[in-house]
Write a structure and sequence with these properties.
The complex is a heterodimer of chains A (about 300) and B (about 300).
Chain A lengths: L1 H10 L1 H28 L17 H7 L2 H32 L4 H10 L1 H4 L2 H11 L5 H8 L13 H28 L4 H9 L4 H12 L1 H16 L3 H6 L11 H11 L3 H32 L1
Helix pairs in contact in A: 2-15, 3-15, 4-9, 4-12, 9-12, 12-15, 14-15
Chain B lengths: L16 H29 L1 H9 L4 H6 L11 H7 L5 H32 L3 H16 L2 H14 L6 H10 L1 H14 L4 H9 L4 H12 L1 H17 L2 H7 L7 H10 L6 H21 L1 H13 L1
Helix pairs in contact in B: 4-15, 5-8, 5-9, 5-11, 5-12, 5-14, 6-9, 7-13, 9-12, 10-11, 12-16, 14-15
Classes of the chains: A mainly alpha (about 300), B mainly alpha (about 300).
């Protein structure tokens, strides 16, 4: 047996070389950068000073009392929860609505993914125009007499946070719709046919069949939505630039502003580590909870 | 909201003929109401994209007075103004983005699929460990890795270059995504097929290229479409890795052009956004068939 295995191993050298190359690239541009970031987070590295020294946990202690960091964490977490709920509810509704085979529905399905196709920068800019005092939303609101004065949707902290939630949900709903549609197409038709013979109403069918059968898709969709919002940068940068008064600044935007505008690499790396731990805890715990739900349903 | 499967064989035909006629009309009515509702909802949902298209061909006055109407007197001023920006940011941006997307995806697909094939033949424990390490790539935010990546690229002399940006694209979460999709698909390839080729003395590389790759074509479509979109729309990595001086990808060029306007020229903005979105949207529409096939096949794995 041994000679054969050796011969087979030799046959695999070419393939092994490509696999090794992939692994080297992954180490070089993901694992090593994370470790370097961790190391930098214990130093006072700053581009303005040539040398840096080990400062222990000083950066993390600063982070504890950094009110700007706290407000960006609070905003990002609230945004992640709100967007995940809205985008998943909308995606499931759209998917149920569009799950038909005729050509018209196929065209509508194609359109529904478009918010994911355009870049977050474009989505942010289009919506910042739509929500501006002279934009379409106010055009409709004042035109129909619902409000007398144009609403400055991006002008006050609360309204801007609400608007950011709306726009990010819009982008992610395109994605969730596609995920749920793929899941719906895998539900055996017999389940619906059998239940309708048993006299189940369409609402019962939704609750007992559809909602349960899409549980694995829900897990994927919810976790990807959460991760996406936790590292969100482009949509908000184009929509509000983090304003007004930093009310809509995400953690990711804060890291970049500390690292590149203030050149404090050490501190930026510490915040990056906080974001990494936060993302890992949320992603792992939500996955565990939703997996358990898949089994119970 | 839910599918009403009224056509249950053995139940419907029992009703007498005139009633069936009435039932048929009411069913047709219900069906068209449903379609009209779906049409309304989805058109409202994609209206921001409709607005980008129509307003790209309107004057600023028309954008302000009737933002939602179709362009009655279409103008090419916005599009041509976007194309004659100082330094030709748009044309250069489109070219740069195309180069980055094509090179990155053309390298990620063979890297990802060969790697997936290689580890799918390894023992379960090895495979699980590798997959866990790769899962981190999907989770780790780019803001954490981008600063050290620039340092590493500086070390090998590729900072602020396109080869540097492409190289860094090969290593991170994109590779993880490709491997996850491919491994799922490769699980469905019967071991006998591979073994038969093995007995004929085919090398691993040859089996991968001649047998595995044709079998996982839907996976390649999924990976290709998603990675192309993500890399084309990427903002942070090109912004920081290429830097402001060397000419930019189209997403960063668009951001600079719009955010540097002192007085917003919405017509020009729409012209710019229309041209920047044209290639990914056209590509997505052209790849519809593969997109659908990849998604349905991917979810059954």
């Amino acid at each position: 047996m041994k000679p054969l295995r050796i011969r087979l191993a030799r046959l695999d050298t070419g393939l092994g070389a490509i696999a090794a190359l992939a692994m080297v690239l992954y180490l070089m541009f993901l694992i090593v950068p994370v470790l370097l970031s961790l190391k930098t987070s214990f130093t006072n590295q700053n581009i303005l000073f040539p040398t840096s020294k080990f400062v222990g946990l000083a950066n993390y202690r600063t982070a504890l009392h950094d009110m700007q960091l706290r407000s960006s964490i609070e905003f990002t977490l609230a945004l992640a929860v709100a967007v995940t709920i809205v985008a998943n509810a909308a995606g499931l509704c759209f998917a149920v609505l569009l799950n038909r085979t005729s050509l018209s529905y196929r065209v509508l399905r194609t359109l529904a993914f478009l918010p994911q196709v355009i870049s977050g920068i474009i989505a942010g800019f289009v919506w910042s125009w739509m929500l501006s005092p002279t934009g379409l939303v106010n055009h409709i609101l004042t035109g129909s007499g619902l409000v007398s004065q144009p609403v400055n949707w991006l002008g006050t902290p609360q309204l801007a946070q609400l608007s950011a939630g709306l726009v990010v949900s819009w982008v992610l709903s395109g994605f969730t719709t596609v995920v749920y549609l793929a899941a719906l197409q895998n539900i055996p038709r017999e389940l619906y046919e059998a239940s309708s013979i048993d006299g189940a109403s369409s609402r019962q069918q939704f609750r007992m069949i559809t909602f349960r059968m899409v549980a694995p898709a829900t897990t994927i969709s919810v976790v990807i939505c959460l991760i996406t919002v936790l590292k969100l940068y482009d949509i908000i940068t184009a929509l509000t630039g983090g304003g007004p008064a930093y009310a809509t600044r995400s953690i990711a935007m804060y890291i970049i502003s500390v690292g590149f505008s203030n050149d404090a690499y050490g501190y930026a790396s510490a915040i990056a580590m906080v974001l990494l731990v936060l993302t890992a805890i949320i992603a792992l715990s939500v996955t565990t909870v939703l997996r358990r739900r898949e089994v119970e349903l | 909201m839910i599918a009403q499967r009224t056509a249950v064989p053995g139940v419907a035909p029992r009703s007498p003929a005139p009633l069936r006629q009435a039932e048929r009309t009411s069913r047709a009515l219900r069906r068209s109401t449903r379609l009209a509702f779906a049409l309304l909802v989805i058109l409202a949902f994609v209206s921001p994209i409709y607005l980008t298209i129509v307003n790209a061909f309107k004057t600023n006055a028309a954008i302000a007075s009737s933002p939602q109407s179709v362009p009655l007197h279409p103008t090419l001023r916005n599009v041509s103004a976007a194309l004659s920006q100082p330094g030709h940011v748009l044309e250069l941006g489109l070219r740069n983005s195309l180069i980055v997307v094509v090179c990155s995806v053309a390298l990620l697909i063979p890297l990802g699929s060969a790697f997936s094939f290689y580890i799918s033949r390894k023992r379960t424990r090895v495979r699980a460990a590798v997959m866990a390490a790769l899962a981190a790539g999907l989770m780790i935010p780019p803001q954490i890795t981008v600063l050290p990546i620039i340092k590493i690229l500086t070390l090998i002399g590729l900072d602020h270059t396109y080869p540097g940006l492409i190289l860094s694209n090969l290593g991170g979460g994109y590779l993880s995504f490709a491997v996850f999709v491919y491994v799922g698909f490769m699980r469905s390839i019967p071991a006998e097929v591979i073994l038969a080729a093995r007995i004929d003395g085919a090398t691993g590389l040859r089996i991968w290229w001649k047998i595995v790759m044709p079998l996982v074509r839907p996976a390649t479509a999924t990976v290709g479409i998603f990675l192309s979109l993500w890399i084309w729309n990427d903002f942070l990595n090109p912004l920081l890795i290429i830097g402001p001086l060397t000419g930019q990808t189209v997403t960063v060029g668009l951001y600079d052009a719009v955010s540097n306007q002192v007085q917003p020229d919405y017509g020009l903005q729409f012209g710019f956004m229309f041209l920047a979105a044209l290639i990914p949207v056209a590509g997505y529409l052209l790849a519809q068939k593969q997109f659908r096939a990849g998604l349905t096949a991917g979810s059954t794995r």
